[in-house]
Amino acid sequence: MNLQVGHSQDSAYWPPECFGPDLFELLGQERPAHRWLIIGPQRSGSTFHKDPNNTSAWNAVIQGSKYWIMFPPKTQVPGVYVSEDFSEVTSPLSIAEWLLEFHAEARKQAGCVEGVCREGEILHVPSGWWHLVVNLEDGIALTQNFVPKSHLADVLTFLRDKPDQITGFRKDIRDPFDLFVQRLRGQYPGLLSEALDEIERRSQSKKRKWEETVGNKEKVESGTGGFSFGFGGDDEDIP
Ligand SMILES: O=C(O)CCC(=O)C(=O)O
Ligand SMILES: [Fe+2]
């Protein structure tokens, strides 16, 4: 796949090739805000969040060093509260308070990934992963959000199902989901239909689990059977 839009010779930098093509490049000038130069003093940072629109990100440290702690998408991160529709994240504590209060407990949690990124190093934040970041020194970093093929279904699902939570698009772009689908249909119809099939498969699997659970609950209530609940399955977020 050759997606070289915007990588002109006079660019100040090129995205690292190891992350593969960025499907949001198909949106050209209509893509949402996606790159930031992050300049911060020692002890500053970013409190727990997921990146916008279910995008993935890379973060390149140009100067200084950063401590990262990350958790897989479905983790209940200690001390971080999410509203029922996932639209709001409340972390009532400052980064320092969270570290003092919850760090020890959180790092024991399954799936926790932590480490330090130094000058010249690049970190990958997979779609949907929680992360908190602290500058260990005064620092400068460059970060860019992108949509890899492996998370196309996640981004399409977000754009389709959470229109009120979409961020970063220009105001005149009324239907980002439809725009993205049209561009994909024009350039990569195969990728689009694979992603739509994947979305359908996930939704069937969710429906099946719901029916199994409700069915069993009815049996329990009417005294005809036991309650069982299956964990895992193919609608899990696998980064
Ligand atoms: O403070 C940082 O370098 C992390 C930034 C980040 O996670 C973001 O911009 O989404
Ligand atoms: Fe982030």
UniProtKB/TrEMBL annotation:
Region span, Disordered: 202-239
Biased segments, Gly residues type: 223-232
Biased composition (Basic and acidic residues): 202-221
Molecular function GO labels: cis-regulatory region sequence-specific DNA binding
Classification lineage: Eukaryota, Fungi, Dikarya, Ascomycota, Pezizomycotina
Protein name: JmjC domain-containing protein
SUPFAM superfamilies: Clavaminate synthase-like
Gene Ontology, cellular component aspect: nucleus
Organism whose genome encodes this protein: Monosporascus ibericus
